[in-house]
């Protein structure tokens, strides 16, 4: 084998994506399929088959691989390689490391998908280009999450669950409940899944007459249960007055969330990904970049969309796979 190869896997809410890549971060082959939730070892079997397919395509033996890195939503027990009550997967525990290593005798490492995002950015994105030592990645998609590198040290946390920034409080009045059961969290107001809840809250506060004269009302024919984040951003792009007002409010909540991140981790660079940010960059980012200075105590960092786009977690999974097991907890010390 002429170059070292590894497999990176990203377990999302619906799909499992995988790549085989070299140490330069070049994806040689990639696959995507629906997650197997028939039983708790279904995902492990999927990954094993994925690895076999990649090795056949690359014309190598499985034992030639450096390792397998798996990025996934938590919560998790990282060292044990087990997911604990993961979102959209109907099991209390989903073992990954043990069943895969039992079948394939190479190292398997599990990492939170948002932590994988900052690792991918550090190894293969802007962080690598600029040799950034203090870096945060924020994902704004179905939920809100993040990963942080401080003084060149990747923050892992107990169980592998550090930097749960989506659960920072941005509304002390606690008007909305987060999916975690607590109130006032950033994710409860500004994530793709929960923006509709904020819209309905504001509609009830603003009053029927003004809402009924808005494009938001027309887009769902008055049925507010049908509104979603895409329709909202479409209305903003069409310069609907009410939609723009609410977008400004969401922008301020996002600025508070980002300011908490800045004061917690003191990054020189924050990169942003996730479907909400990637598809609506010109709506989501400018209010944050404009308003964050009103809230922070630390030095204002650059805030930019990740150049790795939707693959940032896959890049992190690949980087994790190339790390030897005895180094994974202290990668940059």
TrEMBL record:
GO terms for molecular function: N-acylmannosamine kinase activity; UDP-N-acetylglucosamine 2-epimerase activity. Gene3D superfamilies: 3.30.420.40. This is Glucokinase. It holds the Pfam family ROK. It comes from the Archaea. InterPro entries: ATPase_NBD, ROK, ROK_cs. The lineage of its organism: Archaea, Methanobacteriati, Methanobacteriota, candidate division MSBL1. It comes from candidate division MSBL1 archaeon SCGC-AAA259O05.
